[in-house]
Amino acid sequence: MSERDLFSSRVPSLENTNPFMAKAQERRATDPDFLNLIETNPTQAGLIFESVPSLPMSPTYDPDPRGLASARKAVAEYYGPHVDPDDIVLTASTSEAYSFLFKLLGDSEDEVLVPSPSYPLFEHLTMLEGLVPKTYALGYTGRRWTLDFDTLQGPRSKRSRALVVVHPNNPTGSYLNTHEIERLGGLTGELPLIVDEVFFDYPEPELPFTPVRIADHHRESLVFSLGGLSKLCSLPQAKLAWIRVSGPDEPKRAALERLAFIADAYLSVSTAIQDAAPLLLENRFSIQRRIRERISRNAACLKDAIRSTSSLIERAREGGWYAVLELPPGWSDEAFALALLEEGVLVHPGYFYDFEEENLIVTSLLTPETGWEKGIKTVAACAGRNA
């Protein structure tokens, strides 16, 4: 039996690694001075956090498919007194949350509307559930990224089952403002919304508007809001995330019942981490302060490097951990990223995130500061050579 006959065509081999990233991994393994300017893992970013509390193993196991009541109560309190713990379903990760929701909302070959540019994981997650991603666009006005409502209408069809919104988007760092949320509600009708809010707590300090949660302003249809400890508490190793379900009473009740059935088939969330969730969420403020300080210092360093050359432009960013840089004429994203790789510096070419423009690169403001300063100066110098 051939591989083609033995394995699902939906699951590619890891051998199909992007050639650029394969070259980056090879350079990283052989260059002790290699600078990774796309580091987004807080546990690898040189940040000092308080020790994670020990997680004692409970002597009993009495799982609730939706998650332990104490953990769901802590998550509900994070949102505020208006959120009922019974409207929370715990998962091991936001990726698993997407998987549960795609199982809930779609059948094979149904469609999910996803933003572009955005994180490339959506293609994989929809494919693994047998669904088809259809993209709508975010456009750049020169001042901010906005949802392109014309392209949102285009990909909708009778097979559309959900609309994914990343709030703020990754990597553009753009929130939907209140006007966009209201207009979105008028266009989507009864189409359920999946709102990824993992970076919601990291707005830019001088943002001219206050970000609002879509679930609190879009009440006409089901909204599934995703969050988790990975970004909220900088604990990707904790493996705890959640789905907040909101909307009209009857469809919300039915969605929660069916999500409990799906979750009961996996019971993937550790009891120990659920027991620790109230304390971890309570301690998030000091962790987030250090993250914001790192982002602020690196953003200031980036502005200084850009001022030293007329060759780079930083696209407007409203939140999150990423910075999108526009290259001077004469450079493509991949050619520039390859040139930097030869100098031992890693950035992501924009095509990783499905940017339509071919002159954008992506960096992470979470990068350790010493490496960031040296690396971003190399980026500016490289851009200036072809300006």
Count of helical regions: 13
Distance between the termini: 55 Å
Helix content: 25-40%
Q: Rough shape?
A: globular
CATH class of the largest domain: Alpha Beta
Helix/sheet category = alpha/beta
What's the SSE blueprint?
Layout: H1 3-6, H2 19-30, E1 35-36, H3 69-79, E2 88-91, H4 94-105, E3 111-116, H5 121-128, E4 132-140, E5 145-147, H6 149-153, E6 160-166, H7 178-188, E7 193-196, E8 223-228, H8 229-232, E9 241-246, H9 249-264, H10 271-282, H11 284-307, E10 313-314, E11 322-326, H12 333-342, E12 345-346, E13 348-349, E14 360-364, H13 369-385
Parallel strand pairs: 1-12, 3-4, 3-6, 6-7, 7-8
Antiparallel strand pairs: 2-9, 4-5, 8-9, 10-11, 11-14, 13-14
3D architecture notes:
By secondary structure, this protein is of the alpha/beta class. It folds into 2 domains: about 5-50 and about 285-385, Aspartate Aminotransferase, domain 1; about 70-280, Aspartate Aminotransferase, domain 2. The chain is built from 13 helices and 14 strands. It has helices spanning about 5, 20-30, 70-80, 95-105, 120-130, 150-155, 180-190, 230, 250-265, 270-280, 285-305, 335-340, 370-385; strands at about 35, 90, 110-115, 130-140, 145, 160-165, 195, 225-230, 240-245, 315, 320-325, 345, 350, 360-365. Strands 2-9-8-7-6-3-4-5 form an 8-stranded mixed beta sheet, with helices on both faces. The chain is globular. The relative contact order is 0.16.
Keywords:
Aspartate Aminotransferase, domain 2; alpha/beta; 8-stranded mixed sheet; 13 helices; 387 residues; Aspartate Aminotransferase, domain 1
